[in-house]
Amino acid sequence: MSGESVTLDLLKRKMEQFAEERDWEKFHSPRNLFLAMVGEVGEVSEIFQWKGEVPKGLPDWKEEEKTHLGEELSDVLLYLIRLSDICGIDLGKAALRKIQLNAIKYPVKGSSYNVSNTSNSS
Ligand SMILES: Nc1ccn([C@H]2C[C@H](O)[C@@H](COP(=O)(O)OP(=O)(O)OP(=O)(O)O)O2)c(=O)n1
């Protein structure tokens, strides 16, 4: 591997090149990419299922299990990046904006974090 730093833009260009070289652009439609991404999320679920809660850093996992997890997480990321690109969304910009929106929605000052503060609790 080269010493170039990994950016969303680099990964985007590599996915574009990967598809071009194989003449796979025709398969990389928004719907196909979305479904492929969800399939890879399922593969991540398979890795965690039946293990119960696992400590941060996965200290008890074998090296090959961690490598496998890294591969499946990468598949999710790569499809997400390609999906965003094909949809004409600048994912880096969109994510930065979303972080700003999150900070406005969940201000730090005067609010001790509480699950009941979040909209995903009912
Ligand atoms: N039409 C395709 C097929 C694959 N890929 C790329 C993106 C993913 O990073 C990876 C997915 O490859 P597989 O479908 O072979 O999935 P896995 O690597 O997870 O293999 P398996 O499902 O056998 O575990 O390859 C792609 O860009 N476009």
From TrEMBL:
Superkingdom field: Eukaryota
Required co-factors: Mg(2+)
Molecular function as annotated in GO: dCTP diphosphatase activity; magnesium ion binding
Species of provenance: Olea europaea subsp. europaea
Catalysis performed (reactions): dCTP + H2O = dCMP + diphosphate + H(+)
GO biological process: dCTP catabolic process; DNA protection
CDD domains in alphabetical order: NTP-PPase_RS21-C6_like
Pfam families attached to this UniProt entry: MazG
Protein task: Hydrolyzes deoxynucleoside triphosphates (dNTPs) to the corresponding nucleoside monophosphates. Has a strong preference for dCTP and its analogs including 5-iodo-dCTP and 5-methyl-dCTP for which it may even have a higher efficiency. May protect DNA or RNA against the incorporation of these genotoxic nucleotide analogs through their catabolism.
Top-rank EC class of the record's enzyme: hydrolase
Localization in the cell: Cytoplasm, Cytosol
Quaternary context: Homotetramer.
EC assignment: 3.6.1.12
Protein name as catalogued: dCTP pyrophosphatase 1
UniProt keyword list: Cytoplasm, Hydrolase, Magnesium, Metal-binding
Major location category of this protein: cytoplasm
GO cellular component: cytosol
Domain NTP pyrophosphohydrolase MazG-like span(s) in chain numbering: 29-95
Residues in the signal sequence: none
InterPro entries per the UniProt record, alphabetical: DCTPP (IPR025984), MazG-like_dom (IPR004518)
